[in-house]
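Aim 2, interim progress. The first record below pairs a target sequence with its structure tokens.
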Amino acid sequence: MNWKEILGIISIIALLLPVLLVLIYRLYRFKWFIALAVYFLLDFIYNLMTENYIPVSAEIKRYVGISINFLEFPLMFTFMTYFSYSATLTKRIRYSIPAFILFELLTILMFGYNRKAMIIIMAPGLSLLLFFSTLFALRQIKITITQGKSAGKALMASALLFGYGSYTLIYVLYYLMKAGEINEIFSMYFVASTFSVILLSIGIMIENKRIQLLEELKTTRKELNSVYDQKQNVKRIPIDPSVFDKNF
């Protein structure tokens, strides 16, 4: 077993971490984490194929790889809304999802369901994800430093920034400049992917504690509101006038 295979195995195992954490912490209650888990599960399966742990033909492997690249952007845009700090920004990201899917469909109709369409779609997709991850990472890091909170979100956003920064560089080197050996490119991808996913997983574990605390506060608030409403709705018991009878 050479170093490339070792890096591949480590990367494959790492890809499963976010999926397991979403299941263990029951974060599938939230659409953001469902989108994240679906993407990493698909990527995990594809990497098993590329490393020949799941024996499939080259044709199937190629179509699965193209499909995952098409699905990555809508899924990750959905997850990005978790970091949104305003209703306006959330709407913009949400509107970008169907718009990007339409762009993907038009590109496929023009160029076919192939590698060329994938390369064209990846350019704006990676650019947008890099933009959003930079925006959210800088904001969350600032909040963590100045206010001492949201460390989980800061780590997750930083992981996405590192990941998509690295993937954008790999895209430019491999698809546009066609520079470097394929083994070197794969090594860069495995290292970047592994580090990004581990950082993301640590962020999920920290953020889960915050989510649990928020849910406990919501439950407490509901209980207090329920008690308060009951007190407000208590009917006054009419007093018998006879108690004020002078002859009593």
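The second target in this work package is listed in the same format:
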Amino acid sequence: MIKKLAETNSTNSYLKELIHVHMIDMVDSKDVSKYVPEFFSVMAHYQTEGKGQQNCHWHSEPNKNALFSTLLYPKMHPSQQFCLSKIVSLSIIDYLKTLLLNPHYLSIKWPNDIYYKDRKIAGILIENSVMGEEMLYCVIGIGLNLNQKHFSDQLPNPISVSQITNLSYDLDEAVKLIINNIAFRYTKIIENDCKFYDDEYLNHLYLNNKEATFEVNNEVITARIKGVNEYGNLLLLKNNCKLIECGLKEVKFL
């Protein structure tokens, strides 16, 4: 089910508030799935406080882009949660490949921004609720630049599908297809294991195995991306000899 809103502060916040309302009086928090089922989704034509990674804001013109969140109840250990980032990133790329003549320009900028060449076409914010050794739920927020033609000069490198193709797209259809892609890939992980998509994610990783400049813990270095470990940390090879593991708040792409 997809609930459509004309406007909300953020679809992630809306969905989390909906879950918490049903959790308040429950002895067993898992019962919330009876009221807010897995893959229940919320899409909005406009977000007043759209969220991005590390408390950044997601800016979007009204009625132009695919702005939505969907809900999962992952049956996995919290240490495996980065595999959700992999399947969501790849699911967006699955959809974009059906629209673009040059899909080889698509990549995943770690941890889960979607790029076309060197410009950001989609962002993902995944918020997990964890209790001890158990993941209670996962809210996946996605912002895909679909039909917007003009962006604020304050944004560093945005691009939309419409800017690439000069066509317009149905927002409802885009949301449904991406959610279907996520559901398909999610099922494959449940049937197999969290390493099922590792190679595919690595093959799409932005700047993978290419020399680039990074800021790691306030130090500017030249290094090569050598992959991502099972916990989602970026692996950088410095000076072709020292392997560094970096968390989200420890590294910047320069």
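The chain has two domains: 2-203, 211-253. This observation will shape the mutagenesis plan for the next reporting period.
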